[in-house]
Amino acid sequence: MRGRMPMRPLEEIADAAVGVFLARGFRPAGISDVAAALGLSHGAVYTYAKSKQALLHLALMRVLRPDAVAALAVPVETPTAEEVIAVVESWAGDQSALPLLARASAGPAGASGLSPAAELGGVVDELYAFVEQNRTALQLVESCAEQLPELAQWYFVQRRRAMVEQVGAFLAARIAAGLLRPVPDVLVAARFIVETVAWFAMHRHGDPDSRMLTDDDCRRTVHHLLVAAFPSTEDSHD
Questions:
Q1: Tens of pLDDT along 177-209?
Q2: Residues 125, 61: one domain?
Q3: pTM (two decimals)
Q4: Both 66 and 94 in a single domain?
Q5: Shared domain check, 149 and 42
Q6: In Å, what is the CA distance from 45 to each residue of 53, 66, 143, 224?
């Protein structure tokens, strides 16, 4: 008679769930997909997580709070929507609040002591570094948020829209001070900055045609082109 299979580390289950949800999102993904990634039967997955929602909670914990995964009780319980949001909110609260952008969007023009190009370049670099360093976490939340209303509200409205508005406040203040060239629409320009950074720092990794692009080349080129797109009014007359 065959003995029971030894329990797999919960981190291993979590890694498989992360891969499945990144690739498929929440609603299209199934427990059978996670089982196939692990080489387990569909039923065996329930030894580790009580539902697909529990697997998502486990996946989020793996990328947002990796040190806490080993302490979770097995099988992982099905979380409420509030518990899922609490995990991502707790993680977001621990991240850098993009201090340069925060100061630039709230402070008066010229307070940083930097030239307009250097200040804008610093904001772009800070945004790029944040997305690049947290791209797995951001991709996982984004890939599942479209099918989970509470997560969509947190990610797309509370976080991403707020970031675009903060960049827009920075641009508007510098344009009003004559330090950056006017643009047709400030919020569209802010979205252009945020989405350009997001594609090259995060989304290009899922594009097979962009594999030849190096991280360093992308980082430097995004900095160069975005700063060049918003020259000061003084520079534009040179």
A1: 999 999 999 999 999 999 999 999 999 998 999
A2: no
A3: 0.88
A4: no
A5: no
A6: 13, 20, 22, 48
- H or E element in which residue 64 lies: helix 52-64
Q: Which of 91, 229, 94, 224 is nearest to 154 (CA)?
A: 91
The span from the CA of 198 to the CA of 127, in Å, is 9
Whether 167 and 136 have beta carbons less than 8 Å apart is answered as no
Range of 69's domain?
10-79
Nearest to 177 by CA among 107, 98, 124, 99: 107
Statement to judge: residues 38 and 56 lie in one domain: yes
Q: Is residue 4 part of a domain?
A: no
- Cα–Cα distance measured from residue 44 to residue 16, given in angstroms and rounded to the nearest whole number: 14
Q: Which helix (H) or strand (E) holds 187?
A: helix 186-201
Strand locations in the chain (E):
none
Same-domain status, 150 and 231? yes
Q: pLDDT, tens digit, for every residue of 45-77?
A: 999 999 999 999 999 999 999 999 999 999 999
